[in-house]
Every structure is written in C-alpha cells, then in structure tokens.
Specification:
D-amino Acid Aminotransferase, Chain A, domain 1, 374 residues, 3 domains, 6-stranded antiparallel sheet, alpha+beta
Amino acid sequence: MSKITYINTGWTPERKIRWMEDQIEKWNKHGTDLEFMNFEYDEEVSELDTEIAYIRFRTAEGLENQMPSKYRKEEYDEAFSELIEKKEREYEESVSGEIKYIQTPEAMRKYRDKTKVYDLLEDEVPMPDSIKLEEYDDFEDFLSKHGEVCIKPARGNQGQGITKVEEKGSRYYLTTNIDIENIEESSHEAFKEYDLSEEEFEEFFQKYSEISDGPSALIQEWINPRKIDGKIFDLRTYSVFNENHHGARIGEEGLTTNLSTGVKTEDRVLPAQTLIKKGVLTGEEKADIEHYSNKASDLMDVELLACDWYLADEPLMLEANTSPGTILTVVAEDYSPEHLLVDKIVEREYGEELGELIEESKNQRKRMIEENFL
C-alpha cells in the first residue's frame, strides 16, 4: 500500500494529537502505511520520504499573541500570510511525493476575513442579512431596518469582539466583550452593557471602523434563535471531505457559545440527533445544513470547514471557519472531527484495498450515534 503522511501544522493540544495518532494506529493494524507528523510554524521541516502528504494548517496561536491588536488587523494578516508561504515552500522542498492540502494556503490567507467569506457565500447559502462596516450612514440605515444588529470583527475569533447594538429612540444599547474606550488593546473581556447617546455611539463606531484599512467588521441582523431547555445554542457543523460531524454548543452567558474558555466540553455539547429527538431540529433541516456546509467547503476549496448555524425560522449560517478548533465530540472523546479526518484520508487513499473495512467503519459511526442518541 502507498505510504501516506498526515502533517499537522501549528500548535495542537496533546489530546487532539493523541486522537489522531490512535486512529492512525488503528488503521495501520489493518495494513495501511500511515504516519502522523506535527510541525510548529517556527519548526524546521526535515526531508520527508512519502508518496502522498496531506497537510493541514492551523491558526498560529503564538503569532496571534504577539500581535499589537487583538482584532487581527493588517499586521496579523501579513505576518500569518508570510508564515503560510514559508511553510508551503518548506513542504514543497522537503516532501518527496505528492502534496494534498486539507486547506489550501490561498484559502487560509483569504478566508480569515469574515467579510470575504460573506462575499463568497451570500448568494449560495442561507445567511442572515449582512453588510460590511464601512460608512456610518449605511450602518444607520441597516440598524433602522432591523432594530437590533450584531457586529463581528472581520478577523476576530473565539467570540472576541462580538457586539450587539439595539437602537431605542435616541439611545444606543450595546452588549459587548470589548473595552469601548480602548478597542485596539481589548482582550477577551466579560460581556458588559452600555447605554450611549447618538454622539457617543458615533464615536464608538468611528473607533471600530478604524481598526483596519478595509472593512473591519461584518454586521448582521440580530437573530433570535430557537432554544433548547431554555438555553441559547448554535449548531457547529464540520464538513470533513464532505462528510459531516455536528455539535450543538450550549451557551452559558453573553452573546457567544464559543467553547474556548476552558469549560468542560462534554457538559455543553449536544449532537444534532439530540436536537431532533427534542423537536428542536427536523431531519430535513439537518440535511439542508449538511448540504450547504459541504457546498461552502467546495466553494472555499477546503476539505475541513466549520460552519456555525443558528436555527431561526430556517437554519442560517452565521460564519464559516477554515482553521477551526475541533474540540467537539460525538461521544465524549470516543469520536471527534480529528478521528473523522483520519478516517476520510484512509477512505480516499485506501478505498480499493480496504473497501469492506472502510464501509464497516462508516456503519459503526452510524450505529454509535443511533445507539446513544436516537
């Protein structure tokens, strides 16, 4: 069988590395010739003798922490692009065989910007009504149209910088996790509420719009989603080589359900099947979500994409992330998107030799979900 190397680039928690290594070991017992390698962005790549290398880029967290602004403006984009290009050259010089990117370097560079993702997908998938944060008059018209809106930094992540704006008469009510007096230096603050006059809000808007030369944020209509057991949630859908893995992320407080704050994940994640069982999601809606998540993955030219959905009158895609965290699991740590990624590489490269075993693995995934959640 062909020798296949799966190369993970960027800092990765030990737990996730263990998941991938364990899954590769499982397949190698059935005769595959898989190996796993992990390189930091600043780690030199040695010569790699392999027939095919699958390369995945992760967000460079160490680089993010060095940036003067936590909103990932031009300095970060330029530095991150340089890292990607440098690593791309290293792999092309070091890998003896064919290279297949799980996320193309171009997609990684381009689609860190939410406004560019929206430009690509707005006519292709159901999304909330949105505009780019540019001119104040345009924002005022958009806010008057919807009454409540959500501002998301174009290059933010982990729920950072999310701001809800509600207009009531001549007052503007903000709920945000940034320091509105010092936007450039804000870190991940707790959510606070502000009551601003029109003059104060216009000053806030001006500061926000100056974060970068291009559109600094995406502004979306505020969506009041369905709840489960009285709690807000979003549905994260991973498209992994066009197979899907779901997790409903249950919110604790504030405006975001992001799980990057150190909480116990299994306490706040439910599989899509549980939503169906509780009557919060229909099977038809789940199929639509999978269809559009895979379509977004194809349009963005990546084999791994995380799409975040709200369930309103219909499912609406809030955003799509080319370098997502993959902490969500179907059953605790038994099966995650990391496991699925390895399985899909095996399916793609060893399908002819291991057809029956691969089919049994797929059926086993289905049985695991049915036995635990249906």
